Amino acid sequence: MLRPISFEALDTTLPILSRGFPRMRQGGWTSAISRLRAFGAPDMHARAGFLLEDKGRNVGVILTIPSTRADDTDAPRRVVNLSSWYIDPEHRWRAPRMLQTVTACNATLFTDLTATPSVRSMIGRLGFRGWTEGSLVFVLPWFAMKTAGPSQVVPLQDLPPDAFAGPIRRMLDRHAALDCISAGLWDGAALHPLIFSRKTYRGIRAARLIFADNRATMFAQLPAISRFLLREKFLLFAVNADRSERVAGSLFTRRTSPAFYKGPAAPAPCDLAFSEFVFLQI
């Protein structure tokens, strides 16, 4: 039986999440659940995922992190990031039906940013399409030495309250409250929103791009972004992208799994807002 779980009941997923993803320590899951509960605070009864049960025992789990996208003219669009999908080995024959049920709403955009090889081989048959192949990784000191021109990155706390339209400003504020870094990129002509998540890999601090409104502008302003992130004490910067988008001096890697989506339209190229990269800091 597939049972919905609310943000209020997320603590019940800790045992099976820890069993399914042992490389993420208990403290990591506790922190992730705490961020998810803070995010879900406006409606703690909203659905945050599903548990797969068999004879009263939890044998599977998937988190379905909901959010909306809107601007001043469009109606809100529902986005659900699928995360932390695990099923005990003896019950994995149930996986296709479980995912089919979870992603049944045709009006919702579903994303899977960390699909395992076994999941990748299955989700194409269930309507998912490729989004990005991996990640570009930038060594910040190298790019910070390049000429930045008039561009600069302004921290969120230094931006005027009306610097961005309401939906974008609220997104920046909410991510800052979730331990992300929100800012504005001034390119000499316009101000662009930026959100970065945090990750530590083998003792090295890395930032991942979570949101930008224009990928080309972001790549063009890498020196200013690199200087800003260096001041925030990061050494590496990662961007979900395809190999064909590689920038001179960057490294393309598939260490970050290919990303997939299912829904009425493709997601924006640089929109990982309210995703597992934010809550799990992976």
Describe this structure as you would to a colleague:
The protein is of the alpha+beta class. It folds into 2 domains: 2-132, Gcn5-related N-acetyltransferase (GNAT) (Aminopeptidase); 134-254, Aminopeptidase. It has helices at 14-20, 26-39, 95-102, 117-123, 140-144, 166-177, 215-220, 222-231, 276-279, and strands spanning 2-6, 47-54, 57-69, 77-87, 109-112, 129-132, 134-139, 152-155, 181-186, 191-201, 204-212, 236-241, 251-253, 259-262. It has a 7-stranded mixed sheet. β2 (47-54) and β3 (57-69) form a beta hairpin. The longest helix is centred in the N-terminal third of the chain and has 14 residues, at 26-39. The chain is globular and about 65 Å long.
What does the secondary structure layout of this molecule look like, with pairings?
Elements: E1 2-6, H1 14-20, H2 26-39, E2 47-54, E3 57-69, E4 77-87, H3 95-102, E5 109-112, H4 117-123, E6 129-132, E7 134-139, H5 140-144, E8 152-155, H6 166-177, E9 181-186, E10 191-201, E11 204-212, H7 215-220, H8 222-231, E12 236-241, E13 251-253, E14 259-262, H9 276-279
Parallel strand pairs: 4-5, 11-12
Antiparallel strand pairs: 1-2, 2-3, 3-4, 5-14, 6-14, 7-12, 7-13, 8-9, 9-10, 10-11
Summarize, please.
The protein is an alpha+beta fold and 282 residues long. It has helices at residues 14-20, 26-39, 95-102, 117-123, 140-144, 166-177, 215-220, 222-231, 276-279, and strands spanning 2-6, 47-54, 57-69, 77-87, 109-112, 129-132, 134-139, 152-155, 181-186, 191-201, 204-212, 236-241, 251-253, 259-262. It has two domains: 2-132, Aminopeptidase, CATH 3.40.630; 134-254, Aminopeptidase.
